[in-house]
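task queued by scheduler; priority normal; single chain, no ligands, no partner chains; default sampling; output format set to C-alpha cells
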Amino acid sequence: MFAEILFSLSIASTQPDLSEQYTDSTKNYRISYPAIWTLNKGKESISFTAPLDPVIKDEFQEVLFVHVQKQDSNVRTLEAYEQKSLKDIRSVMGDTALIEIRSINILGRPGKEFLYEMLYKNTVIKIKQRFFKHDQVFYLLTFTSTPAEYEQNRAIADEMMQSFSLLE
C-alpha cells in the first residue's frame, strides 16, 4: 500500500515535467513527453503511453498519439479534413459521440479540436483530438483516456500537445 501511494505521488509530481523529447526529422516535428510515459513507434504514427496507476487498479492506459498524413486528392483543405473526420466519427460512433468541436490556433495556423467518446473493448473512452495542416501534410494529435481519469490527465496531455512543434 505504501509503495502504491509513493507511485501515485511520483506520477502526480512527475507529470508536468516534460523531460523527454522525441524528434522525427523525416516527418518534420518534435514533441516533449514525461519520462515515465513510454514511447511507441509505429509505421504511420507514434504514441506515448502513461503508466498504469496501481492505486485505482487502472486497466486502461492513457495514450497520446501523433499521426502525420499527407493530403490526398479528396482531402486537400482543413475544412475537408474536418468534414471527413466528423463523418468517420459519426458513422462509427453515432451523432451523440461528439461532445465539442472548436476552431483553435496551432502553431499560428488554423486548427480544429474535437472532444468525443466511444466504446472500446467494453470501456467508454474519452478522446481529445487536435489537427492542423502545414504545407501538404495534416498533423493529428489524439489523447485517449477513460472519462473517470480524463480530468486528472488532461493537463499533461494538453502540455504535450502544446509542446508539439515543426522543425525548421
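post-processing summary
- The longest strand covers residues 109-120.
- The chain has one domain: 2-166.
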